[in-house]
Specification:
Largest sheet: 2 strands, antiparallel
Number of domains: 1
Number of strands: 4
Bound molecules: adenosine-5'-triphosphate, magnesium ion
CATH topology: Fic-like fold
Distance between the termini: 28 Å
Strand order of the largest sheet: 1-2
CATH architecture: Orthogonal Bundle
CATH superfamily: Fido-like domain
Number of helices: 8
CATH class: Mainly Alpha
Strand content: under 5%
Length: 201
Amino acid sequence: MILPNKLNILDQIELAKAEEKLSKQKAKQLFDSGDMSRIEVGSFAGLCAIHAYLFGDIYDFAGKMREVNIAKGNFRFAPLMYLAQSLEHIDKMPQGNFDQIVEKYVEMNVAHPFREGNGRATRIWLDLIFKQEIQQVVDWNRVDKEEYLSAMQRSVVKDLEIKALLKTALTDQIHDRELYMKGIDVSYYYEGYSEFKTDEL
Ligand SMILES: Nc1ncnc2c1ncn2[C@@H]1O[C@H](COP(=O)(O)OP(=O)(O)OP(=O)(O)O)[C@@H](O)[C@H]1O
Ligand SMILES: [Mg+2]
């Protein structure tokens, strides 16, 4: 199914390209404008702000909680019936150290609050928490795609793999523009988008 979009694109390949280009431009702007510093760190409201920023020109559902159930592989993300309640719980989860932050991220992934674009928006959200709370961010370029996706699949049962994987990729270079832009490219690559380089848009 092709998602209804504000660009009135009906061709799925064309939509994927336009979505990648426009939302990467916004991801770049989020950093360069300083808008990122105004995002609430570690809350669902903050995640909505990121999602709306990235996808607001493309989808009506940007920044809004999904209204359908979704699954990936054989995992069903939080059922709609419990989604709002689960997000309230996640908001209250502590984020004072590395383990707590990853645990919160894993729960937000299980919630998967949006119709589309969860992976990409939630990784930015995760880095904002790391940055504020432990003065580090993930160097995504050091996190292998297959290992990451398999650790995330596994995380709904056990979070050891994702914790180990992210821990080895932490860096103190929290203000490094190049690292951020590269991180966006890698994050999009995980989801199958690799047409454009963020910094060149
Ligand atoms: N089987 C799975 N179980 C749990 N989490 C998963 C699974 N597969 C993927 N994920 C996590 O969900 C993220 C995005 O997955 P998905 O494609 O469902 O979301 P999306 O809403 O389409 O987001 P995006 O468009 O950014 O990819 C992945 O990056 C990974 O973190
Ligand atoms: Mg997707």
